[in-house]
């Protein structure tokens, strides 16, 4: 620091500018009266009556009146405010984990108080935690009080006032003609919306809380119909686009591929090939999902589609979300297609500059008919000569932009300026349950491989507490002694203080000692790509007996000789992930076993997951239970990808409404185009693109 110069003053952070009321509304997507109208309550509070303390029970939301008997601020383990309140029938404990001096002062007066909250079972009897406290004696509410979704700094009073104003100015005309409402037994929209914002006094808490009232049925039906209309529009828009029809008959290339295979296609695989072929013959882009359980043989179906496109004079791109999975596809496709004279290109971020340049040249010249890789395929340097088919594996793991970028690689125009798009085949080993398919994938054609290739032995799943580790070690030794191999999967790479879990690095070190002289390898996401490839090749060729791994082996890894899978801390994994990991064994004819090693005590949700894994190996049943446990947003990664969800309807309980909405949507746009547009404007309002992605 220069002598004599004063030390610089630390800059104060500029104070945050308070949001205006309109800006707070905007954070909730509330811009116009129509937005406020469909901003419906999350729940209702019953402030219409006062309950005697003696009639309370755990789980009940209740309002009581009484006098404070005592207050006490307890400093340990942290400052908490405790109080006891009594009425003529009994006493109740009150507790605040965080409190203000004003709350303590409110409780120390001698006036009777009205207290509202959820009753819980505490250490010393029933209690309310963080109850709402007001003065007693004020008039009770005449009807249920709505509680709306809100944001920081926006009170329920402000929301209620804005919604009341909107109801006086918004267009509440019904978007469903009277004959449609009659056919489906639906309340008029205006009546339903006003009832939900202002429940009449005769309506009970149970009537509305469980969303079983006809007013909720109307709202849920409207939401589902808007979703189905949007998906129908997406399908119509796709069918208005153009794609080059392919000559996908039984070409010489296709015949040669099928003749070279050491197995015969299953009936389900043949059916899926036929469905995909029919799509690629059309003059608009295919948009099909090929789904099937782990090990069901999706890759060969995709290979046949690729060969048919190549035989028609087009190039094909196959993109996978991880380098291990992409490389597995490359090695398998190369073994099938190179003997047929088809040149492949491999592209990933880890390739050297020269290897990338050669891949770019092979793709742009058309010399490489099939390009396989990771997101490296969507870089600007990658230019196709004539891309006719795009294949996306585990497509829900890509962002919307990434999927569109790869598709745009196939954009082309004829001499008249007509644009052409490539066909698209999506693959997923996460089967979509029926209700989810109806609600979110109605614009997508679905092919399902619903049988496993013959000769596969069902995988036996066993649960074991981690104190039985010695038994598991003995099982590993026994498998290796018979010439087989084992996976040992761990959830983390390095020790985490927050999650005291056994890690892959530590487990590898421990197993090398415990299982010596067995050959134990280690693979995880932080290894360099070349190192990963080397470890996988060593395991694949039998030069490693045991592979300690993180979830990088979740999909795509195919080692038929591996017959034992141990999943460490299985209670920490999601159900779909457990099923995917289990699918790494049972790839051959050897009886395979998956051991779910867990640490007690188990949470309720972990117990459900492990029970599902123990009870079934059916991927479709696993998917149904996973949807039940996680909801649609997390099931297909939709929260992460920004896909629009459902605010009011439930996939679990509203299957009948979903079917009705789907049935009506098929004719509604044709028979009532103005009503359909009005309906979409009210319910979707700009969310259609999110839904379609």
UniProtKB/TrEMBL annotation:
The keyword Ribosomal protein is annotated on this UniProt entry: no
Keyword tags: ATP-binding, DNA damage, DNA recombination, DNA repair, DNA-binding, Helicase, Hydrolase, Isomerase, Nucleotide-binding
Keyword Metal-binding: no
Xref: InterPro entries: ATP-dep_DNA_helicase_RecG, DEAD/DEAH_box_helicase_dom, Helicase_ATP-bd, Helicase_C-like, NA-bd_OB-fold, P-loop_NTPase, RecG/Mfd, RecG_dom3_C
A GO term for molecular function: DNA binding
Top EC group: isomerase
Ranges for domain Helicase C-terminal: 468-628
Pfam family, one: DEAD
EC number: 5.6.2.4
Protein family: Belongs to the helicase family. RecG subfamily.
UniProt-recorded name of the protein: ATP-dependent DNA helicase RecG
Species of provenance: Alcaligenes pakistanensis
Lineage start: Bacteria, Pseudomonadati, Pseudomonadota, Betaproteobacteria, Burkholderiales
Name of the gene: recG
């Amino acid at each position: 620091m220069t002598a004599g110069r004063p030390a610089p003053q630390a800059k104060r952070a500029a104070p945050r500018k308070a949001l205006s009321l309109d800006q707070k509304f905007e954070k909730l997507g509330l811009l116009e009266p129509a937005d406020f109208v469909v901003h419906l309550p999350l729940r209702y509070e019953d402030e219409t009556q006062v309950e005697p303390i003696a009639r309370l029970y755990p789980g009940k939301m209740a309002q009581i009146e009484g006098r404070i008997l005592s207050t006490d601020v307890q400093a340990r383990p942290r400052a908490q405010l405790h109080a006891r309140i009594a009425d003529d029938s009994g006493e109740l404990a009150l507790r605040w984990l965080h409190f203000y001096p004003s709350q303590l002062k409110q409780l120390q007066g001698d006036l009777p108080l009205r207290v509202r909250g959820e009753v819980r079972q505490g250490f010393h009897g029933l209690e309310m935690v963080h109850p709402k406290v007001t003065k007693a004696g004020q008039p009770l509410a005449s009807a249920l009080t709505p509680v709306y979704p809100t944001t920081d700094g926006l009170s329920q009073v402000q929301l209620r006032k804005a919604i009341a104003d909107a109801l006086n100015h918004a267009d509440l005309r019904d978007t469903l003609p009277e004959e449609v409402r009659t056919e489906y037994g639906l309340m008029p929209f205006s009546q339903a919306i006003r009832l939900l914002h202002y429940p009449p006094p005769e309506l009970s808490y149970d009537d509305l809380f469980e969303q079983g009232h006809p007013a909720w049925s109307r709202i849920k039906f409207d939401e589902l119909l808007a979703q189905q209309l949007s998906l129908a529009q997406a399908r119509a828009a796709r069918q208005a686009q153009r794609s080059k029809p392919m000559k996908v008959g039984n070409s010489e290339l296709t015949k040669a591929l099928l003749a070279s295979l050491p197995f015969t296609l299953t009936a389900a695989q043949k059916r899926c090939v036929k469905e995909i072929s029919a799509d690629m013959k059309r003059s608009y882009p295919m948009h099909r999902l090929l789904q099937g359980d782990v090990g069901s043989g999706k890759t060969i179906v995709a290979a046949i589609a690729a060969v048919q496109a190549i035989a028609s004079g087009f190039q094909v791109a196959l993109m996978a979300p991880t380098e291990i999975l992409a490389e597995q596809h490359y090695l398998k496709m190369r073994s099938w297609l190179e003997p047929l004279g088809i040149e492949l290109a491999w592209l990933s971020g880890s390739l050297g500059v020269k290897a990338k340049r050669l891949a770019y040249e092979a793709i742009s010249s058309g010399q490489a008919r099939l390009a396989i890789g990771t997101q490296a395929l969507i870089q600007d340097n990658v230019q196709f000569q004539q891309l006719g088919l795009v294949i996306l594996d585990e497509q829900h793991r890509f962002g919307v932009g990434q999927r569109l970028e790869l598709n745009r690689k196939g954009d082309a125009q004829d001499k008249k300026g007509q644009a052409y798009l490539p066909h698209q085949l999506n693959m997923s080993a996460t089967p979509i349950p029926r209700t989810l398919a109806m609600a979110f994938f109605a614009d997508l054609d679905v092919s399902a491989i619903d049988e496993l290739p013959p000769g596969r032995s069902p995988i036996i799943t066993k649960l074991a507490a981690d104190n039985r580790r010695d038994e598991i070690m003995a099982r590993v030794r026994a498998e290796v002694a018979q010439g087989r191999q084992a996976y040992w999967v761990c959830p983390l790479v390095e020790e985490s203080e927050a999650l005291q879990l056994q890690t892959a690095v530590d487990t590898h070190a421990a197993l090398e000692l415990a299982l010596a002289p067995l050959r134990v390898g280690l693979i995880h996401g932080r290894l360099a790509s070349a190192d990963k490839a080397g470890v996988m090749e060593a395991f694949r060729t039998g030069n490693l007996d045991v592979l300690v791994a993180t979830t990088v082996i979740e999909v795509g890894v195919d080692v038929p000789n591996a017959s034992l899978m141990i999943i460490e801390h299985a209670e920490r994994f999601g159900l779909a992930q457990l099923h995917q990991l289990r699918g790494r064994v049972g790839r051959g004819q050897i009886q395979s076993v998956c051991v779910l090693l867990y640490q007690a005590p188990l949470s309720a949700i972990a117990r459900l997951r492990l029970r599902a894994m123990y009870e079934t190996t059916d991927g479709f049943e696993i998917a149904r239970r996973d949807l039940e446990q996680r909801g649609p947003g997390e099931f297909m990664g939709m929260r992460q990808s920004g896909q629009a969800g459902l605010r009011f309807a439930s996939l679990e309980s509203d299957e009948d409404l979903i079917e009705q909405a789907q049935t009506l949507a098929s004719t509604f746009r044709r028979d009532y185009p103005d009503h359909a547009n009005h309906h979409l404007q009210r319910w979707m309002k700009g969310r259609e693109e999110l839904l379609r992605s």
